[in-house]
Design brief:
Low-confidence stretches: 1-31
Mean pLDDT: 89
Helix content: 25-40%
Largest sheet: 7 strands, mixed
Radius of gyration: 20 Å
Structural class: alpha/beta
């Protein structure tokens, strides 16, 4: 790949970072808060190389590894006497800012802000160290207006944010149909409407949009209002898997405290194992965490289909990250970045090997 471009050439992600939108429902808002969830640490537990590790994640089902890991104490168990301080975010840019400032050390985050954070600092600040989740993104539509994929032409389809992961996916899908849309304005054969996930259900109800390409649980909220799933994005990917959530770390923290990073990764691996072995309990734990963070749990008609469409896994699905970046380039929203070095999977593979699990691959995008 070509050398990393300066920030002004990364049009998608520069715009995303600058947008002051309050996009809250599915992890695209503009605020962060300290979680009230305090980890319980045994008085005689041995500390690692720091007293406290600051982690960040979204109050979002696609971040359930963190939600459940904190809620059930699975992450804290691996950290021993090193206490977790958790902060929640509703925006990728704000979480990247927190990482860059040192406010948090490790974060769960989507692929677009991970690419942004890496390229913005010319590869010098952040690393992706693990996967966390795949899937959980759907094109849902008004069945009275759209009954087939070809009917999407001429309609108004919402995405969460200009240049975000779902926006790029929709633009790429539109291009593959042979239709044309100006990526930045959203005008063309399909009207791409950038709409806060928090208000997308109201926009759908009012008829101002005909459908939406959105992550869970927004997709299932729309279905609960009568929308129909026209396309599951997983069906567009090899093996029906694509990265939706990564784990990233500050390189400085990784270098100084590898024992802490390994402990968090071990907790993540064990949490994903527990989630997959106990899906009903895990779903309830994630919903309880959401209730504590937002004050309101998801109803079953939203929670159940949303949860079933997400796959929790340790593999970062590195090849799909590269493909997603290529889609943004194709849409004209991003000049081709050099992603070589965005991954450091050595700590994760060490953990996986110790747990008797298969190691994972960085698709040639690992540290140089």
């Amino acid at each position: 790949m070509s050398a990393a471009r300066p920030l002004n050439s990364l049009r998608t992600f520069a715009v995303v970072a600058a947008l002051p939108l309050l996009l809250t429902a599915c992890g695209y808002g503009a605020e962060s808060t300290d979680s009230d969830k305090q980890a319980q640490v045994a008085a005689d537990a041995e500390k690692l190389s720091v007293d406290e590790v600051n982690i960040g994640y979204f109050p979002n089902l696609t971040h359930a590894t963190a939600l459940v890991g904190v809620q059930e104490g699975l992450l804290q168990k691996e950290l021993g006497g090193t206490r977790i301080k958790a902060s929640t975010f509703n925006a990728g840019p704000s979480e990247i800012e927190a990482l860059n400032s040192g406010s948090i050390d490790i974060g769960w985050i989507g692929p677009s802000p991970a690419i942004n954070g890496y390229t913005k600092a010319a590869g010098k600040n952040l690393r992706i160290i693990s996967g966390s989740a795949s899937g959980g993104v759907k094109l849902v539509v008004n069945p009275e207006k759209i009954t087939s994929l070809k009917d999407v032409k001429g309609k108004k389809i919402a995405t969460p944010q200009l240049g975000n992961t779902q926006d790029v996916a929709l633009l790429n899908w539109i291009s593959e149909q042979g239709w044309k849309v100006d990526a930045e304005s959203g005008k063309g054969d399909v009207s791409v409407i950038r709409t806060d996930n928090s208000i997308t259900p109201d926009a759908y109800k009012s008829g101002s949009i005909d459908g939406a390409w959105v992550p869970e649980p927004t997709a299932s909220k729309l279905v609960a209002q009568g929308a129909k799933v026209l396309l599951d994005e997983a069906d567009l990917w090899p093996d029906k898997k694509f990265v939706i959530t990564n784990i990233i770390v500050r390189q400085e923290f990784l270098k100084k405290h590898p024992d802490v990073v390994e402990a968090v990764l071990r907790g993540s691996v064990k949490t994903n194992e527990w989630i997959n072995a106990n899906p009903v309990k895990a779903k309830a734990a994630a919903n309880e965490a959401l209730k504590e963070l937002s004050g309101k749990a998801l109803p079953a008609e939203v929670l159940d289909p949303a949860w079933s469409s997400i796959v929790f896994l340790d593999d970062p699905l590195a090849a799909t990250l590269g493909t997603e970046a290529d889609h943004a380039v194709k849409a004209g929203l991003l000049e081709k970045p050099d992603l070589k070095g965005i991954y450091d999977l050595a700590p994760l593979n060490k953990v996986l090997k110790a747990e008797g699990k298969d190691e994972v691959d960085d698709a040639g995008l690992g540290v140089k």
